[in-house]
Write a structure and sequence with these properties.
The protein is of the alpha+beta class and 394 residues long. It is 29% helix and 26% strand. It contains 12 helices and 17 strands. The chain is globular and about 50 Å long.
Length: 394
């Protein structure tokens, strides 16, 4: 298991419950997942040669990078080197690097914005005339909206490139034209078995319109609230993409948007489960728990019984965050909200911990899983969350 963070604990505990001997590694020995594994090693999940040596020494039967973009290529590389079940390393590399992914989409006839990758401000500035404003500036290999900015004037370029580069492990950024979306952004998880897309559960991504980055998501909600035919079209695009890449039995985190002309753009196809408790909300909503399938897939076990089941009820995940920077004191929940809508609250936050005014996922203080009686109720509450939860800061 590559990583032992709070949200990765679900996969670690599941693997142990399934009867497997579990080894975890990352560079944070205090991560909570390690207390559930049988062994822990202080090895970075992005150090592929060190992870390979560890896996070789222990003669492991499978490698999982659960809910981790940076670790997904390492899991594929190590598995490929050891002859273990995996999707192709080169394909996972493409999916894990935004510039390679955009190039692949364009080369294979998918809808994709004008996009180019760069290694420096000077290189990006020299090519600015190839874009129409606004554009998005992103690290090619980061997640959680970290280092992403919407550029509306080229005077912002130097600062935004520097911010993006600060979050890029490979030292590369991508600039891509902004797409005006129609309706909600599509978000959720999917699963393929032997290259066939067998399951997906897509919902609606929502944002904090009053935040510093109004494109930084706060969570997803279900059921899907756009034309159902879009899901059929997205399924076809995803299946074609999965087939072209030669993907095998793999979990995916999917982000897509529909433009004003009803064109579907696949923004992300991460070769890993979603963070932010997306697999857990999906299990509540559909009854399909993808976590055991992730583990079985990594071990080469049969996953053909996974079913596409509809969402029942109204569900959401929500990124707990602070409106100010300071030291954490306490969390207040409105009593009716706590009693009738709060299903799970997952956090490691302790009194006195430093918190930062919310910018993007790096400032998340925890996650909530919420349930609602109706879509209307869900949208009303999610639009007014300040009434129902408050982070008290010293």
């Amino acid at each position: 298991m590559l990583g032992g963070s709070l949200y990765q604990t679900y996969a670690i505990k599941e693997a142990v419950a399934m009867g497997h001997y579990v080894i975890t590694c990352d560079y944070l020995p205090t991560n909570p997942g390690h207390k559930y594994s049988h062994e822990y090693y202080n090895i970075s999940t992005t150090d592929r040669e060190a992870v390979l040596e560890l896996a070789r020494q222990h003669k492991v039967d499978g490698v999982v990078a659960y809910a981790s973009d940076p670790a997904a290529p390492v899991a594929a590389y190590v598995s490929e080197q050891l002859g273990l079940p995996t999707s192709p390393y080169k394909s996972v590399e493409i999916l894990s690097n935004k510039d390679l992914f955009r190039d692949f989409l364009a080369a294979n006839g998918f809808n994709t914005p004008v996009a180019m990758g760069f290694a420096s401000y000077e290189e990006a500035y020299a090519n600015k005339d190839k874009f129409r404003l606004p554009v998005m500036v992103k690290p090619v290999d980061s997640s959680g909206s970290k280092g992403i900015n919407k550029l509306t004037s080229w005077e912002q370029l130097e600062a935004f490139v520097a911010d993006a580069l600060s979050y890029s492990r490979s030292g590369r950024i991508i600039i891509e034209e902004f797409i005006n979306k129609k309706g909600w952004q599509i978000s959720g998880d999917a699963f393929s078995v032997d290259g066939v897309l067998k399951f997906h559960c897509f919902g609606n991504e929502y944002y904090n319109p009053s935040g510093k980055k109004d494109f930084a998501p706060l969570g997803e909600c279900w059921p899907f609230m756009m034309d159902p035919k879009l899901i059929d079209r997205l399924h076809q695009d995803l299946q074609r993409l999965i087939s072209l890449l030669g993907m095998k039995t793999t979990a995916y985190n999917v982000e897509a948007i529909v433009d004003e002309n009803d064109n579907i753009f696949i923004l992300e196809l991460g070769a890993r489960s979603g963070g932010s408790l997306i697999p857990q909300v999906t299990a509540y909503a559909t009854g399909v728990d993808m976590v055991p399938y992730v583990i079985k897939g990594a071990l080469g076990e049969d996953c053909s019984d996974i079913e596409m089941l509809p969402v029942k009820g109204c569900w959401a995940n929500y990124m707990v965050h602070s409106k100010q920077t300071g030291l954490y004191d306490s969390t207040w929940f409105e009593e009716d909200f706590r009693k009738n809508h709060l299903v799970e609250s997952v956090t490691e936050l302790k009194q006195g911990d430093s918190v930062h005014e919310f910018r993007d996922a790096q400032d998340a203080l925890g996650e909530l899983i919420l349930k609602f009686d109706t879509t209307e109720q869900m949208l009303d509450i999610l639009s007014n969350m300040d009434k129902y939860i408050k982070i008290q800061v010293l």
